[in-house]
Batch of 2 targets.
Target 1
Amino acid sequence: MKSAERVKKLRDMMGEQMFRLRFQLAMGQTETLNKIRVLRKDRARLLTIIREKNND
């Protein structure tokens, strides 16, 4: 899989999850705030790995 395909798949997957978590947060489920933070950090880690592989 090419790096561009990985990034697109990652954005699609993370975007959908982030949308669902934001919706839950708006509905008043307070535990979703921690899930959002974890998801953002995971996304950043994955993007860092992809960028490192592109530089090789």
Target 2
Amino acid sequence: MPLPAAKGKQVKITAVKTLVVNARMRNWVLVKVETDQPGLYGWGEATLEWKTKGVVGSVEDLAVLLIGQDPLRTEHLWQMMFRQYFWRGGIVAMTALSGIDQALWDIKGKEAGKPVCELLGGPVRDRLRLYDHLGGGLMEDIYQSEAPEVFGERIHVSLEKGFTAVKAMPIPVAELIETPATLKRAAKCVEAMRKAAGDSVDIMLDLHARTTSAAAIQFGRLLADYNLFWYEEPCWPEHVDALLEVSRALPFPIATGERLVGRWQFRELLEKRACAIIQPDVSHCGGISEARRIAAMAETYSIPVACHNPQGPVSTAASIHIGFAVPNYLIQEVVRADVPWRNDILTHPLDVACGYVDPPTLPGLGIEINEKAAAKYPFAPEVTMACFHRDGSVADW
């Protein structure tokens, strides 16, 4: 049931708070927007690895604009957060904005007594396909194994859960131009996955923008026979012409966009058709409000959307609502086994441990955070990923 405001009284924001939860590989930055109406509040997520304290500070900066405002004016508040400070935000400030925007949509849905996807126009599909991470997010553990066959062994765990699509990262920290041994080892990893899964399972590869366009093409040509669902972030997304080179040189779709924020950073990518799939992150790109605008832009170019989402449970919930409301949505990334207590901090855990999810039915984002349980895992510095080339020069992780 909706939570009605007192007759004749406008709901007002009274506080914007952060709750940091350490989940081993990253700190989940959960954002709580409180109102003067008892029981009416919203949750969002602004997780950004290795930038946790910066994001928490940016949430505090934005809170100054929001106290006393009507939380139901989601678009008005988005414009305030984006435009009313002289310095426009980069990834840190936009991540903070994204978490707050999610929380405002959560409030809006709770106040209306409807799921957020209903407020976005209603579900456009009966179920949403999900894809799993090989090893439950422990990709670095897999890559350190000497045997490429480990990839094939791990894929069976995902298949047993009901997934029909998986993503892996068998491409190492890359050189500018790669050696035959490195190229062949990566190909053996993908070969092991395809042999274990058969042709009925879709396989995506994530390059983490570690490669130059030349090295990405070298890898890709050896992988052409394995029918990849997509080839993700072969190089930095702002190098649009480099992405275009890779896209034209290889026979499978290129996906990118997780590091881009705001619709403006996606514009050239779409105009040049430098990728086949875009991957905005609802916790970075500008929240639910901006993610659906980016998706609408992509729809005009007949380019599908698959939101990036390796974060915590609030980001997952927000992404799923977008997935049900966006007609050109392809598939949703989920993490299910990064920490064993992942669902313990939720009062209504999401069932994402299988290959599909049904439309949300609870008001708002449909989740609640158990703050007492979450407090058991306070902030801790993330492990620094120090990566170097063979000659000792710094490499992209």
